[in-house]
Amino acid sequence: MAGLLKLEVVTPVKYVVSEDVEIVMAPGTLGEFGVLSGHTPFLTSLKPGRINYKDSSGKERTIFVSGGFSEALPDRVTILAESAERRRDIDIDRARAALERAQQRLAEEKAENISFERAKAAMYRAIERIRIAETKGM
Length: 138
Known about the structure:
elongated, 9-stranded mixed sheet, alpha+beta, ATP Synthase, domain 1, Single alpha-helices involved in coiled-coils or other helix-helix interfaces, 9 strands
């Protein structure tokens, strides 16, 4: 078994995760990346998506992040996220309502005060939250 590394996922208001893990997979803006113990140090920005990791017992876990930054060091991964939620904490009804609002905004092609980029980003975040919440066993 490979060594463990410390995973910390932090938002401006709370620690979401602080535990020893076997591996971390995260959504970098240039593509998904994985980190094991002993990894070469690097820093990258994150796009909205899922962080998958295996805890110290080998159980797979999932967290939604809305973006932010990740620093990988040989013995730790620190994720500074705009917002983050464990799968069990996602309010699926709220995510579905956000998806519906975003889709309505995108359907209003002629609206002057609608930011289509913001509406697309909100739609993507809602879809990812729903996918994560509906995934069994993580």
